[in-house]
Design a protein that fits this description.
The complex is a heterodimer of chains A (843) and B (344).
Chain A: E1 2-4, H1 5-8, H2 19-28, E2 33-40, E3 52-56, E4 62-72, E5 80-85, E6 90-95, E7 108-118, E8 123-125, E9 134-136, E10 140-142, E11 145-147, E12 150-151, H3 154-157, H4 179-183, E13 185-190, H5 202-213, H6 231-234, E14 236-239, E15 247-254, H7 263-271, H8 279-291, E16 296-299, H9 300-307, E17 312-317, E18 339-342, E19 347-350, E20 354-355, E21 368-374, H10 377-387, H11 392-397, H12 404-421, E22 424-425, E23 430-432, E24 441-445, H13 446-453, H14 459-468, E25 472-476, E26 479-483, H15 494-509, H16 530-545, E27 548-550, E28 555-556, H17 558-562, E29 589-590, H18 594-605, E30 611-622, E31 631-642, H19 659-672, E32 678-682, E33 688-698, E34 701-709, H20 711-714, E35 724-730, H21 731-737, E36 753-762, H22 767-778, E37 782-791, E38 800-809, H23 818-836, E39 839-840
Parallel strand pairs in A: 2-3, 14-17, 27-30
Antiparallel strand pairs in A: 1-13, 2-13, 4-5, 4-7, 5-6, 7-12, 8-9, 10-11, 15-21, 15-22, 15-23, 16-21, 17-18, 18-19, 19-20, 24-26, 25-26, 28-29, 30-31, 31-35, 32-33, 33-34, 34-35, 36-38, 36-39, 37-38
Helix pairs in contact in A: 5-14, 7-8, 8-12, 13-15, 14-15, 16-19, 16-21, 22-23
Chain B: H1 2-21, H2 25-36, H3 41-47, H4 56-94, H5 112-126, E1 130-131, E2 137-139, H6 140-143, E3 169-171, H7 177-186, E4 191-200, E5 212-222, H8 227-242, E6 248-255, E7 258-267, E8 284-293, H9 295-301, E9 309-316, H10 317-325, H11 332-335, H12 338-341
Parallel strand pairs in B: 1-4
Antiparallel strand pairs in B: 2-3, 4-5, 5-9, 6-7, 7-8, 8-9
Helix pairs in contact in B: 1-4, 2-4, 7-9
The chains are: A alpha+beta (843), B alpha+beta (344).
Chain lengths: 843, 344
C-alpha cells in the first residue's frame, strides 16, 4: 500500500514528526515501511534506517507558473511555444505536449493554465528514457528555436510514468511558489499484514498513527444517507443469498460528466499507484484508497437500455454456462460457486472482483449508478483461486471488509462524484443489509495482560490505546470491556478475543518496552536424541576420512532417476510423491533414490576436480499404499571417482580409485560406528558392474549395496574414463545398528610375534571366509590377521590362488616362544586344509 | 739425546704445520699415516726405545709422549673441523625452498548449512532445548489447519505451496507442523524443543530465493510462559550467535499460529549498525519471526490454553549463512559445487 503523506495528514495532525521518524513509527506498529519515495522533498539528514528514493525539486528552479498564450512553433507542426509567467516575468517555453494544442493560436488565454515549470539547470527525470534517469536541463535549440526551460510532465517530476502531456495544475495554484512547497510529498510504501487488511487504506494507516501517537483522528465529513426515496423509481434491487452478499447498496448521480478530476486528486491517485481516469472512476478509486471499501460504477443509461426500462440489479451465483466479458477484456470460466452482480438480462460483474466491459463508465456517461457492497470473503477467495484475477477490489474483499464501511463509502463517493464530475445526487439510496454484522465485545483484566506479556500494563493505558484504535471501552469491576470498532472483523471472542486485544495493546504500547526475562518454568524431562547423534557421527567419520558432506535437493524427476538404469529404462510402476504444481519439468517429484542424486553430484563436479569423494545423508520419499504420507527413509550415499590423492608439484597423480577404495571407506565407516558382524557379499544390481558389486549385511539384514557403475549405465552420464564408485545405505539401519558404546580391547605389554603364511586355495573360496576361519583356528593368542598379497600362477595349479597373510601372536601374561607360534600355525594350516583344502605354500 | 729431543719437537711443529694444509678426509688420512702411522717418527721412536740407554729412556719417552699427545690433539681438532664443514656442505645441498606448497591431504568438510545447524543445536542445547524432527511431506491439516490457517483463510497467501497429486498432502512450507506433532506426543509435559528441517516453497529460483531451504523453529510450552520470556530467550540466542554485544529489536508482525506476533531484527554484524550492503543500509538484519502460541494451536496440540501458554520462533538458516560468509548465491548450498564446498 502506497500512502502519500499529504493525504494521511488530512486525517491526523503530524506536526513535529520527521519523515524518518514517521517511517519508524509505522514499522513499529506493524506497518513495515518497505521504501520511502521523496517527491520533490529533500532526503532527511542523519542516519537513516529506511530505504529512500526520489528526486528533490530545487526551490529556485522548480516553481508554479502560468501559461498565458500558446503559439505555433515556426518550423515544427507538433511543437508549440508557450508564453509563460513564472512569477518573475514572461518567458517563452517550447513544448510538444498534446494538451497545449487546443489552446494554440487563440491569443491571450482567458483562463491562464497553471503548470509545473523547471528552469535551466534543473535536475529532473528524462521523460524520453524508460525508467527514472536523472538528467540536467540544458539549453538546446530545436528547429531553430532556443529552449532553456521546460513545462513538466508527471514523469519528469517522478510522480508517475505519465509522459503523454504536461501537468495542468489546479487553477488556485499560486504563481511563483516553489513547486515543492505547493505539491512536494512523501510516499510511504507499507506492507499490509494479512490480519491488518483494514489498513489497506489511508484512513486505516492514519488510525494506527493516531493510536501510536495519542493524537486524535479527523474523520472525513460524511453526509447521512436516506434509505429509499426517489432512487426506487430508477432502479430495483434483489439479493438472492445474504450469506454470500451480506450487504448491497446503490446510489446515483444524474447529469454528471466523465471529465478530468482536479489535479490534486489525480496526483494523490498517481502517488498511491492508481491511474487517474476521469472524475467518476477516480471518485470510486479515491474512496476505496481512503477508507478501504471498494466500489463499482455503472453507466445507468446502458443498464436501462439493456433492461428496456427500469433496470433491476440482482446478486446471485452464476448459472451453468454463463459468460461475462470483463473490463480488462478477459472472459473467465464462470461456475455455480461464483457470486455475480447481474440484471434481468445477465451478468454485469463478478462480485467484488471486476466489472464487465459492457456497462462500465465511458466518456459520455451522464447518469452514474454506484454499487457499494459487501461480499463473503471465503467464497470470493474460491472465485479468485479459479479465475486468478488480481484487482484492488478483490485484494481488499478477499481479506474481509466490515459491512458498515459500505455505507460510509457510498456517502463519500456520491459527494465526490458530484464535486468533481458535477450533476445532482438522486435522493435516497437502496440498502439491502440482510446480515447485519455484530461487533464483538471482549473483557480483559490487567492480570490477563500480564500473564501473556510478562509485563504490567495498566487498564487506563490499555483503554487509551484501544479507544484510539476505534474500540468503545468501559470498565466493569477490574475488567476492561472493549467493543470492536465497526471497521474491523478480525477481533474474535473468548480467549482468542482476549489475545487479539493483547496484541493490539502490546504492539501500540511498544514491544521494545516489554522486559526481557529468562525462562523460569520447570525444564521438561531431558531426553537424548540418539538418532540425530548417530547421524552426526556418520558425518564426522566420513569427513575425518576425507569425504565431502553435501546437501541434496529433495525434488527431482522420474526421468532423472531413470538414468540409473540401462537405456534409461526404470522398472515399471515406481511410485512417486508427485507435485501438482512443479516449478520446472526438472523437478516434478520427490526423490526415491539417493544414488541418483549422488551420481548427478559426481557428474556435475567431475569437470572441476581430478578426484571426488562425496557423501550425502538425507531422506528419500517412498509412497506407502494406504498411508497418506510417504515413508521418509534416511539414506546415506557415498560416491568416489578419479584419484584419491590430491596431486602435488613433485608427485604424479595417483591411480584412479577402484572398488577397493570404496570398500575401504565403507569399512572405515562401519568400523567407526562399531557395527558388529558385518559381511560383504557379491550381488547383482541393475546399476552396477556384475562382477564389481557387493551387498553389505549384518546377519540377514541388508544395510546397503556398493559397487562400480555398470558401463551401460555410465553412458547415461557425462563421466570421463575413471571408474565411478557408489554406495547407498539404509541410514536408519546404520543408525539403529551403530554402537555409541563398545568394549575397548586391552593392549598387551608383552612383545608380539609376527610371521607370514601363504595358503593356496581354489579360486572359489571367498577371502572373507578363509580369513574368518584363520581367526577361529588361531585362538585367543592370534591378535591380528592382515592379507598382504594375492597371487595367481600356473604353477599353483588350475583355478588356484595364493593368499599371503601376516599373522600376529601375542599373550597378555607372558612372552610367547617359537613353540607357541608353531602350535598356532599348525592349527591354522590343519583347519583350513580340512575346510577349504588349503595347502601351505612353501616359500 | 738432545738431538733426538730436538727432532721430536721439530716433528710436532712440522705436523701442526702440515695439518693446516689438510682440507678433506683423504689428505687427513695421508697426514695420519705420515705422523702417526707405522713409519712415523713417533712410532719409530717408540719402537727404538728398547735400544736406548737406561738414563735416556725417561727423557725420550716423555718427549715422544708429548709429541704424540700434541699431534693427536691437533688431529682431533682438525677432524672436528672437517666434519662440521662437510655437514655444512650437506645441509646446503639439502636446503629446501620452504615456500613451495605443501602436499595437500584430502580433507573432508561438513556442509556449511550443517555447520550452522550444529551451532544452533549447541546453543539451544545449553538452554535445555531438545531436537524434534517431523516429516517434510505433510498433510494440509498439520501444515495449515492445525496452525490456525483453515482452508481459504487469507493467511494462506503467505506461503506459496507445493501441492502433491494426493489430495490434502503438501510439501511442508515451514517447520511449524512439528509444533502440533511434538505437542501431541508430549502433552501434558512442558515442552522446550527446536524443530530443524528442510522446507519447501513455490518460489522463483534466483540468487536470493530458493524452493528448498532449512528452517529452525523453537517451541516452548508450559504454565506461565510469557512474551517477556520469549524476548529473553531470543536475546540470549542472538548474543550467542552474533556476539555478546548484539542488539536486537522486536517489531509487530503477523503469523496465524502466534498472537501477539513479532519479527526480530539484530543489529547488522557486518557493519555494526552503520549501514552496509549486507543490511541494505538499514543497520538491521531480519533474523526471525516469533510470537505467543495461538490458543487454537495449543488446543490442536492437546493443551488447554486457559492453563498453558507458550512461544514459538522460526528462522531460515540459509539466509543467515549467506550473510555470515558473504555468499553471493543461495543456490550454491544445494548445487554442491565442489569449488564452493571446499572453502569451508
Amino acid at each position: 500500500m502506497k500512502a502519500p503523506l499529504s493525504w494521511i495528514k488530512d486525517y491526523i495532525n503530524l506536526d513535529g514528526i520527521g519523515i524518518e521518524e514517521l517511517a519508524n513509527i509505522l514499522t513499529n506498529v506493524g506497518l513495515e515501511v518497505e521504501s520511502v519515495q521523496l517527491v520533490g522533498v529533500e532526503k532527511p539528514e542523519g542516519k537513516l534506517k529506511n530505504k529512500y528514493f526520489g528526486l528533490p525539486w530545487d526551490k529556485e528552479k522548480f516553481v508554479v507558473a502560468e501559461v498565458v498564450e500558446v503559439n505555433q512553433h515556426p518550423n515544427a507542426d507538433r511543437l508549440s511555444l508557450c508564453e509563460l509567467n513564472d512569477g518573475m516575468g514572461i518567458v517563452t517555453v517550447l513544448t510538444g505536449a498534446p494538451n497545449m494544442f487546443p489552446h494554440l493560436g487563440k491569443g491571450r488565454l482567458e483562463q491562464p493554465l497553471k503548470v509545473a515549470y523547471a528552469r535551466e539547470g534543473s535536475m529532473l527525470y528524462d521523460g524520453h528514457q524508460p525508467g527514472q534517469v536523472v538528467t540536467k536541463l540544458k539549453k538546446t535549440t530545436i528547429r531553430g528555436v532556443e529552449s532553456r526551460s521546460m513545462i513538466c510532465s508527471e514523469k519528469e517530476l517522478g510522480i508517475s510514468e505519465e509522459h503523454e502531456g504536461v501537468i495542468e495544475l489546479d487553477a488556485d495554484a499560486p504563481v511563483g511558489m516553489p513547486l515543492v512547497d505547493y505539491m512536494g510529498d512523501v510516499v510511504y510504501e507499507v506492507a499490509i499484514l494479512p490480519n491488518m487488511a483494514r489498513d489497506a487504506s489511508i484512513l486505516g494507516i492514519a488510525r494506527e498513527l493516531s493510536a501510536a501517537l495519542g493524537r486524535p483522528l479527523r474523520l472525513p465529513e460524511e453526509p447521512t444517507l436516506e434509505k429509499g426515496g426517489a432512487i426506487e423509481e430508477k432502479i430495483g434491487l434483489e439479493v438472492k443469498n445474504t450469506e454470500l452478499n451480506p450487504r448491497f447498496m446503490l446510489g446515483m448521480v444524474e447529469g454528471t460528466q466523465a471529465r478530468k478530476s482536479p489535479y490534486w486528486v489525480q496526483r494523490r491517485l498517481s502517488l498511491a499507484g492508481m491511474r487517474p481516469i476521469d472524475a467518476l472512476v477516480d471518485a470510486t478509486n479515491y474512496t476505496m484508497l481512503e477508507i478501504g471499501q471498494p466500489l463499482h460504477a455503472f453507466d445507468y443509461d446502458l443498464l436501462r437500455e439493456r433492461a428496456g426500462g427500469k433496470p433491476t440489479i440482482i446478486t446471485r451465483t452464476a448459472h451453468e454456462g454463463e459468460k461475462i466479458a470483463l473490463l480488462d477484456g478477459s472472459e473467465p470460466q464462470l461456475d455455480t460457486q461464483m457470486e455475480l452482480v447481474t440484471d434481468t438480462v445477465g451478468p454485469l460483474s463478478i462480485a467484488g472482483v471486476m466489472g464487465g466491459g459492457e456497462t462500465g463508465v465511458h466518456a459520455e456517461t451522464r447518469n452514474l449508478l454506484i454499487e457499494s457492497a459487501n461480499w463473503n470473503f471465503i467464497n470470493l477467495r474460491k472465485t479468485l483461486s479459479k479465475t486468478r484475477i488480481n484487482s484492488e477490489a478483490a485484494y481488499r474483499f478477499s481479506r474481509d471488509v466490515h459491512p458498515e464501511l459500505a455505507e460510509t463509502a457510498l456517502s463519500l463517493c456520491l459527494k465526490r462524484v458530484q464535486e468533481w464530475g458535477g450533476g445532482e445526487v438522486v435522493q435516497g439510496v437502496l440498502d439491502d443489509y440482510g446480515k447485519p454484522y455484530v461487533d464483538t465485545v471482549n473483557r480483559i483484566s490487567a492480570q490477563n495482560i500480564a500473564e501473556v506479556l510478562g509485563q504490567e500494563i495498566s487498564l487506563e493505558e490499555s483503554i487509551g490505546i484501544l479507544e484510539r484504535l476505534g474500540f468503545t471501552c468501559w470498565i466493569e469491576g477490574n475488567e476492561l470491556v472493549a467493543k470492536s470498532p465497526a471497521t474491523r472483523t478480525d477481533i474474535e471472542t473468548g480467549i482468542i478475543g482476549q489475545r487479539n486485544l493483547i496484541e493490539e495493546i502490546s504492539r501500540v504500547y511498544g514491544y521494545e518496552r516489554i522486559a526481557a526475562k529468562r525462562l523460569s518454568d520447570e525444564l521438561p524431562p531431558q531426553l537424548g536424541n540418539p538418532d540425530l547423534e548417530a547421524e552426526e557421527r556418520i558425518r564426522d567419520i566420513l569427513v575425518s576420512i576425507g569425504l565431502q558432506d553435501t546437501l541434496a535437493y529433495r525434488q527431482t524427476s522420474p526421468e532423472r532417476e531413470a538414468r540409473l538404469f540401462i537405456g534409461r529404462k526404470a522398472p515399471a510402476g515406481l511410485a512417486y510423491v508427485r507435485l501438482k504444481n512443479p516449478i520446472t519439468p526438472e523437478r516434478t517429484v520427490m526423490r526415491r533414490s539417493a544414488m541418483a542424486t549422488m551420481l548427478e553430484l559426481l557428474e556435475y563436479n567431475t569437470k572441476f576436480r581430478p578426484g571426488l569423494a562425496l557423501f550425502e545423508l538425507g531422506p528419500v520419499f517412498l509412497p506407502v499404499a494406504d498411508e497418506i504420507l510417504p515413508h521418509e527413509a534416511l539414506r546415506l550415499s557415498i560416491g568416489l571417482t578419479g584419484a584419491w590423492d590430491v596431486a602435488s608439484w613433485d608427485r604424479p597423480q595417483s591411480k584412479a580409485m577402484d572398488f577397493f577404495d570404496l570398500k575401504g571407506v565403507v569399512e572405515a565407516l562401519l568400523d567407526g560406528l562399531h557395527l558388529e558382524g558385518v559381511r560383504f557379499q557379491a550381488t547383482a544390481h541393475p546399476s552396477f558392474h556384475p562382477g564389481k558389486c557387493a551387498e553389505v549385511r549384518v546377519g540377514e539384514e541388508i544395510l546397503g549395496v556398493m559397487g562400480e557403475l555398470h558401463p551401460q549405465v555410465r553412458k547415461n552420464y557425462a563421466f570421463g574414463q575413471d571408474p565411478v564408485l557408489v554406495a547407498e545405505f539404509d541410514g536408519e539401519a546404520l543408525v539403529r545398528l551403530s554402537n555409541a558404546v563398545f568394549t575397548n580391547k586391552a593392549i598387551s605389554s608383552y612383545p608380539a610375534m609376527v610371521e607370514d603364511i601363504a595358503l593356496i586355495v581354489d579360486e572359489s573360496v571367498p577371502a572373507e571366509d578363509l580369513e574368518a576361519l584363520i581367526w577361529q583356528a588361531g585362538g585367543k593368542l592370534l591378535v591380528d590377521v592382515k592379507l598382504f598379497d594375492v597371487y595367481r600362477d600356473a604353477r599353483l595349479g588350475e583355478s588356484k590362488k595364493s593368499l599371503a597373510y601376516q599373522l600376529t601372536y601375542q599373550a597378555f601374561d607372558r612372552t610367547l616362544n617359537d613353540k607357541d607360534a608353531l602350535n598356532i600355525r599348525n592349527r591354522i594350516v590343519k583347519q583350513t586344509k580340512n575346510t577349504f583344502g588349503a595347502v601351505l605354500r612353501s616359500s | 739425546m738432545l738431538e733426538t729431543e730436538g727432532k721430536l719437537q721439530a716433528e710436532l711443529a712440522r705436523g701442526i704445520e702440515g695439518l693446516q694444509a689438510v682440507g678433506n678426509v683423504e689428505s687427513l688420512e695421508a697426514w695420519k699415516q705420515e705422523f702417526l702411522g707405522k713409519s712415523s717418527l713417533v712410532m719409530q721412536t717408540y719402537g727404538s726405545m728398547a735400544k736406548l740407554a737406561k738414563e735416556e729412556r725417561p727423557v725420550i719417552g716423555k718427549a715422544v709422549n708429548q709429541l704424540k699427545v700434541g699431534l693427536e690433539a691437533a688431529l682431533a681438532e682438525k677432524e672436528e673441523g672437517i666434519k662440521t664443514a662437510s655437514q655444512q656442505e650437506t645441509f646446503t645441498k639439502e636446503t629446501l625452498d620452504v615456500t613451495l606448497p605443501g602436499r595437500k591431504p584430502r580433507r573432508g568438510r561438513i556442509h556449511p548449512l550443517h555447520l550452522t545447524l550444529r551451532q544452533i543445536y549447541k546453543i539451544f542445547a545449553d538452554m535445555g532445548f531438545q531436537i524434534y524432527r517431523s516429516p517434510e511431506v505433510e498433510t494440509d491439516d498439520f501444515n495449515f489447519t492445525f496452525l490456525n490457517i483453515p482452508p481459504y483463510h487469507p493467511a494462506r497467501d503467505m506461503w506459496d505451496t507445493f501441492y502433491t497429486d494426493k489430495e490434502g498432502v503438501v510439501l511442508r512450507t515451514h517447520t511449524s507442523p512439528g509444533q502440533v506433532r511434538v505437542m501431541r506426543e508430549r502433552a501434558p509435559e512442558n515442552i522446550r524443543v527446536i524443530l530443524p528441517g528442510t522446507t519447501m516453497r513455490y518460489e522463483q529460483l534466483t540468487a536470493r530465493s530458493e524452493i528448498e531451504f532449512i528452517q529452525v523453529e523453537l517451541l516452548v510450552v508450559g504454565k506461565g510462559i510469557t512474551f517477556a520470556d520469549m524476548r529473553g530467550t531470543l536475546n540470549d540466542f542472538a548474543r550467542r550467535t552474533f556476539g555478546e554485544n548484539a542488539r536486537t529489536r522486536l517489531r509487530p508482525s503477523f503469523f496465524p499460529f502466534t498472537e501477539p506476533s513479532a519479527e526480530m531484527d539484530v543489529q547488522c554484524f557486518v557493519c555494526g549498525g552503520e549501514g552496509c550492503g549486507v543490511c541494505k543500509g538499514t543497520g538491521w538484519l531480519e533474523i526471525l519471526g516469533c510470537g505467543m502460541v495461538h490458543p487454537t494451536v495449543l488446543r490442536y496440540g492437546g493443551y488447554d490454553p486457559e492453563v498453558y501458554s507458550g512461544f514459538a520462533a522460526g528462522m531460515g538458516i540459509d539466509r543467515s549463512t549467506l550473510m555470515r560468509y558473504h555468499i553471493d548465491d543461495i543456490r550454491h548450498f544445494r548445487n554442491n559445487d565442489i569449488r564452493f564446498l571446499e572453502q569451508f
